[in-house]
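In response to the reviewer comment on reproducibility (Comment 2.3), we provide here a single inverse folding case reported in full, input and output, so that an independent group could reproduce the run without further information from us. The structure tokens appear first.
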């Protein structure tokens, strides 16, 4: 099931005793894309603006605007976890977020999927709002903030290997730091919402790599349907620019 959560407002934080922070029973990381208001535009392929869990779909479904461009209201600035569990409409929403993020505000959406994907392929570097989202016992602890990009997510792996603190956005500033005891602390500004051992974070990031590989497979299938002549080039471009695969 796809998990979508607010990326800014309405966030629930995991708060327990100090001892519980060190040994959460469930700790997970996911690579996410943040949808923007521009995703509401009618891109030349079908997609959902909203990508909600199944039980929410039943209660929150909005009739599609057209048979080939379905949409759902009220879903701006939420995250989509990139996994192998997405359907093609959800992959289309991710593609709409990618396409809108790399487009100048006054540019019109291309009339065809081929033209829009060619524009993406011509970019020097594809970027999209997103990054790593951390949950403890199913509750969001930290999620990408303003100016964070999915393409930067491997900074978390570099951090575990002794590199600088990864960038997670600002207002509030997302912080991932090492404590004197060697644990990894997550939070915003100067607060620490959760502490975990480095090896546990590394395992969670390994799961992120597996999820991104599965998503890349879905992306390839989506591209074969909508831009068959550009499918291989698109998957290669996004795999490289958005760090969906390990660097070669």
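Designed residues, in position order:
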């Amino acid at each position: 099931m796809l998990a979508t959560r607010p990326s800014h407002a309405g966030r629930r934080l995991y708060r327990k005793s100090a001892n519980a922070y060190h040994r959460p029973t469930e700790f997970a990381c996911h690579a996410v894309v943040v949808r923007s208001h521009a995703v509401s535009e009618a891109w030349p392929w079908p997609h959902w603006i909203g990508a909600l869990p199944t039980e929410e779909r039943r209660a929150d479904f909005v009739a599609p605007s057209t048979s080939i461009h379905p949409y759902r209201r009220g879903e701006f600035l939420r995250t989509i976890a990139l996994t192998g569990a997405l359907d093609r409409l959800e992959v289309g929403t991710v593609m709409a977020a990618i396409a809108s993020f790399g487009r100048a505000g006054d540019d019109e959406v291309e009339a065809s999927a081929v033209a829009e994907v060619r524009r993406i392929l011509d970019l020097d570097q594809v970027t999209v709002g997103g990054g790593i989202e951390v949950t403890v016992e199913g509750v969001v602890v930290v999620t990408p903030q303003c100016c964070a990009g999915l393409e930067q997510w491997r900074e978390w792996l570099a951090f575990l290997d002794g590199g600088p603190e990864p960038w997670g956005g600002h207002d509030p500033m997302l912080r991932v730091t090492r404590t004197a005891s060697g644990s990894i602390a997550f939070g915003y500004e100067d607060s620490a919402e959760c502490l975990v051992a480095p090896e546990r974070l590394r395992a969670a990031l390994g799961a992120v790599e597996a999820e991104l590989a599965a998503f890349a497979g879905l992306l390839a299938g989506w591209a074969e349907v909508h831009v068959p002549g550009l499918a291989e080039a698109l998957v290669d471009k996004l795999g490289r620019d958005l760090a969906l695969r390990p660097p070669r």
